[in-house]
Fold this protein.
Amino acid sequence: MALYHNQPMAHAQEPTAAPIEHRFNPYSDNGGSILAIAGTDFSVIAGDTRQSEGYNIQTRYARKVWQLTDKAVLATNGFAADGNNFVKRVKQRLEWYEHAHHKPMGLKSIARMIQTMLYGKRFFPYYVYNILGGIEEDGSGAVYSFDPVGSYEREACRAAGAAQSLIQPFLDNQIYFKNQQPEPGSQPFIPGNLPLATVLSLVVDSFTSATERHIEVGDGMEIYIVMARDRTTDDLLGEGKLQKGMEIEELGTLGEGQGERTFLVRQALKRD
Amino acid sequence: MMSQHPATWGQPTPANSSFNQFNTFPLPQTQRGQSSHAHHGPVGHTQQPLVTGTSVLGLKYDGGVMIAADNLASYGSLARFRDIQRLHPLGQHTLLGVAGDMSDFQWLKKELDALLREEDALALTDSHPSLSPKNIYELLSNLFYARRSKMNPVWNAVLVGGWDKVKKESFLAYVDLLGTTYTAPTLATGFGAHLAQPLLREAYEAKAGIDGNGPLLTKEEAEKVLEDCMKVLFYRDARSLNKYQIATITSEGVDISDSKSADTYWKFAEGLRGYGAQTQ
Amino acid sequence: MTSIGTGYDLSVSTYSPDGRLFQVEYAGKAVEAAGVAIGLRCSDGIVLGVERLLHSKLLVKGANRRIASLDEHIGIASAGLLADGKHLARRGREEASSFRENYNSPVSVQILSDRISAYLQAYTCYGSVRPFGLSSIIGGVDKTGPKLFCIEPSGVYYGYRAVASGKGKALAKTELEKIVNKYLDAEQSGQGAGLTCREAVDEVARIIYLVHDDNKDKDFELEMTWICQESGNKHRPVPDDLLKSAEEKAKAALEEGMEED
């Protein structure tokens, strides 16, 4: 699909008698991939930083993952101009909500709001796949995924974008344990309660693999980790917990702060 | 209906408004002030570019940023206007390099110049700071995205080069008719994205490294790379011209060079067989 | 004001029996209460100056300016109600930019003054509005050279070599006449080069300090702009060092004058 923008020789089958209609196409596809995985008391949301159009790399660093509140992070993928402007509007709505209610919007409410905003442009859609990750009011890690016109659901994990077809089957296998059998006599698999270290290595492997096999993925990776309040950070900040070449920073609280903590991990990806 | 009440006054009479504000027209049902007869058919949108400019190149260097563009505006494959300037300064520390439809560019220039003139006038009275390159870029991004969302695009790809006086660093960013935005230490539009961008990246990374932490190109080195790129573009882009300008934007301000041309070599053409008048 | 209480001063849509519009005349009173504003046309440009009276010690230094830009090459200094002045400057900017839009060339000072005066005059025609409490000095340099106009609340406007309005304008005008005459004589005898903007900055500062009454008036700040070669033929504030030296000279001249008395 991505190899050819148009099917080769597709025009040969079309009738040539009618004049070719030349119409402005308001969309583009800027490549890249995003994914999010929920844990019991954390959520990981990641994306690569390459922005491309066709075979051109436009920039090696463009943001696709955005911290919205202390417990919500949004990843956007698809048409970058729509993505940026959509995030801008979401942030504006969150600000208005905070002015009106003196508290940040909760995760499930943000998810519903995103659905109405996307559906509001049902007949001129934002060409954007959104994945929202964060901590619910009950303290559990959560991931919501959306299609461009607002259909959404809560899941344990989701990949989207150019390399969705490469990453999602891998996550289905590793997160949802598809095509795996528990050893006889052992506990059944429960999706969504893997330890943070495992989740992080799945994220890294997903992106390094996608970088190898997909031309639109690469350059750099940004991984946001949102942790529930009172959760230990030893499995992230402890000695030797991060892989080589990773840089970590804690993003300060955006509002009053209720104990949730958000960390940003960056790692380089191959640039070819 | 144009009101005569002073409380409704506020705007100067627009050029296209009907000039019958004082009930001289005998028919009371006539809707004055609404030019209902002005429109025949749908509102005109730019559906395709007509007179176009080709590549614009941009490069960050030590102490500033350089933007290059040639002096050609093509009408299809016709080299129609061979002495137009596609580099346009905005205020003290910002410059646009514009590719795409030249009439949209002229409209853009007019709008932005008017805006900056107003800002300038207000600055004297209210002593507020002038628009930074980042401010102008944000404005352009919003404008381009809003127009594409109305299916009435501003048919251009624009490089914004500038110097941020507060951060004391150079600024370089791209925006186009779709509202697509991005920034990078080297940028190129159109054919330049294919032919020049790899050369620019190679030269930039040779010194600065892939993380950009090393030393940047000197002014002379940057100018040399851009000149090489403009030559390559002239050789291979049929809509380009060997007559171009390079603008530098530094803390000192904007400087746009006179038109210059690259030395080109065509001797090899004589040795080619299979074209032209040779008989053997 | 012998006609107060006769009923002819309530609306601008009614003349008094002897043909006057009292509301317009009252607007003139608002002007007289304001600090003096001066415009001076020089051989090489225009200088505008105002005595900005400070009604409170708490005001931020340099704030609430009374000189505004209408276009790159035109400035307006107004004496009267500050808010009216802001509104008029905004309207003037819209007129100037609309002229550029329509004709792709900068508006001349004459045409812009004419349009602004027409706007002011409209506010003397309707019972529902009050006239502007403003006397506005419009100065600029266009392709015909430096030009200076002053518009009154009635909408009437005249061109000037030098003009003053606001509190103490009579004294200021006498001083301006002296300067104008001096340079006119010099020009006519073929020896003087005419008054330059640099010289005019000193003169305007001196007159404003002279007109200011230390005993009766509140403190003031001197505000000055110019349009000349040195400002790139754009309307800009007079540079700080120049303004400061002009103020020093003005104070010195004042001391000197007091000793003579």
